[in-house]
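Schema walkthrough. Field components (list of strings):
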Amino acid sequence: MSDEKPMVEGFEAPISLHYTFAAGHAISKFLHSIKEGKIVGQRSPKTGKVIVPPRGSCPETGVPTTEEVTLPDTGTVITFTVIHIPIPNNPIKPPFIVANICLDESDQTFIHLVSDCKNEEVQIGTRVKAVWKDPAEWDYSMDNIKYFKPLDEAPVDIEKLKAERLKAVEKYRHA
Amino acid sequence: MREVAIISYVQTPMRRDAGANNDVEMLMPTLQEALSNVGMTHKDIDFTCSGSCDYLGGAAFAFVSAVDALGAVPAIAESHVEMDAAWALYEAWLKIQCGKADTALVYGFGKSSHANLPNVLSLQMDPYSVQPLWPDSISMAALQARALLESGKCSERDMAEVVANSRRNAKSNPKAQLKGDFTVDQLLREPTFVSPLRKHDCCPITDGASVMILAVREKAEKFCKRPAFITGIDHRIDAHGLGLRDLTVSESTRIAGEKAGANKGPIDVAELYAPFSHQELILRDALGLDATKTKINPSGGALAGHVFMACGLDRIGAVATRIINGEANRGVAHATSGPCLQQNLVAVLEG
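Field assembly_structure (string):
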């Protein structure tokens, strides 16, 4: 088989497609708020739960969410991991913490960094607060929050926190 | 075989651009309406299946986020096809036939306004020998139209008649994007766009979503006075390479129609998914339709609005709606996928 040609491993295919993208009404509103340094979620008219970042729908029941709820920038670590791989072009050096954070007065977690702390001291239930970029740098981005920093508060029992939240949203629930 | 019927169908208005709405926001009110029209909630649905294409939005796994519109807590049985939602309906129909579900919700959605759809569709071609040439969907359809004209099977006047009928029929379809009164001579005076196609021979670019609910007879009769039963359904595919088949006929449609039993009874209404005017003529021929006995595309068809990934489901929905409303007893719906009518599905619906 000495006359067999080598395998073709690649060729140029000059295709380019240009897309515009619509984030949707809910995410657009959220991005406008975060540009002003405010975190705004939406409440489900059925479950009463506050979703942040909002996606315009209640994922539990599939109904539209419209009521806006301005949230504090403090929350609780629901779970976390320590990452040993650097993020390209990010000043935060490994090992660093990525956590699933539930903001106070909300009912859905989102992912962000936890920093400016001893990694060993972060645990499930650690209380955290957002550290914002200089307002001059604020854009339509979650990046406006550089990271969350642990508060000088005792960690909370997240099962208790979940139960408290379920009780707190009861008055907004419409089956 | 279990008797399966369509009991509800809702379509968003077909628009050139749905603006700031994302897929979920487009879908949610439509879903709620399809359920509430028959007094159902999402808890009454055993299986959910959707059809959409990530290439339309340019975001991988975009269809997963559409689950936010469903109310998937506790977790639901769900599936997705990267095909027109007519094939999602086929999967749901099979699921019900297998006894795994008694009810199913089927939906399709697409925002073609995000990109240039004819160019996006070049990606469906063979990646080694055809795709690098970047053949857009309109040019490929034009090759087929030219072959059809030269074969003597149709004239440009016949194509213009298809368009005039579509625009006229669409006047009674409140969801239609393009409608109005045009004479054949008026249409023939328009310049060609991609020869021999004129702009009006091509389907428009449309944003929208559609939702349908299926149920077995016992459930269907509980939720709907006059369900539209699926008494036949089949889909067939022709070879991928355009050079491997006679573009002036659609063998896959003919066989699917035969297997579905399209001509085993009178056809009151037929809805054909023909994105280009000449393709309606090919499809009529493949299904043996007689325009003097059958209302063809009373909704206006794909030329009146073309939600890519939902347009086939919309054809089935348009026939089902006429049966549910008592305007027809027996109808045939057709869906297509791929370049130049490559893959075709035919469903027979009866009241």
